[in-house]
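Appendix B. Raw example, untouched.
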Amino acid sequence: EKVDVTGSNSNLPTTETSKSSSNRKSQYVRSEKLKDYKFMFNIADGGFTELHSLWLNEQRALTPNHEQEIWHRRHDYWLLAGVVTHGYSRWQDIQIDPKFSIINEPFKMDMAKGNFLEMKNKFLARRFKLLEQALVIEEQLRRAAFLGLAMEQTNPALTLSQRFSEVECLAECHQHLSKESLAGNKPANAVLNKVLTQLEELLSDMKQEINKLPATLARLPPVSQRLNMSERNILSRLPNGQNLQPSTQVPTTTVTNGNEYAYGSYSNFIGPFALPAGGNSNNKPTSSSSTASVDSSSTRMKSSTPNNDA
């Protein structure tokens, strides 16, 4: 007795067609839902970096349906995610990862240039350095807010710092006026006189604030009270330098980032520009040994949309 094989397999094309159509339908529904979500990502750096100014200018330069061609906030988000995944200065690994293909979009117009890869990697390094600085400042501001370290507005030290910033800004912005005034430019001479008057007023205010500092310092609580530690605990944490000779150098503790790059201090560890030019490319860092500040900040990178550009 022959078994009818054709009858049993006749439903296979119909099943595959129905599966593919259902997949297309689900993808369409998902894309339609994602249109209602707004991309949200921010770094609260308190205005201490130029990051938000760049974001604002880049947002203004965007054109509809061509948003990925200009580097902006969304690219920064996925750049940080790529560094968290692949590690510091692993720009090539990030670029070839399909999940982070959005990073390659702004550079497609420059692919014909001879130094395309070098230019691209330098841009990513500079951009990441700025993002990392903003993340470090955000963390310090968060700690200060948690510890309640906000300074009183009437504190003479705060007023003195503000006056000094104004003096520095005013002097730097108008330093060219002195040369123009000496060259016989009368309008520049008039502006220079006004600037010098403002500087004189600011310096007078700073002198008054300096006179208030001794009384302010006298009202400060002891160090042990501000640190919530006893004097014995503070002394035990201080390095014992009695047995050290004046010419003795304290060895610097080195820290590696998993890429066999040594750093003497955290100030040198910040940013990819601190990395040497060479390095063993075979020692690829894992995600657990990749980043110091960005790894802790990855939980603060919030986006309501996944990467659809990959």
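End of appendix B.
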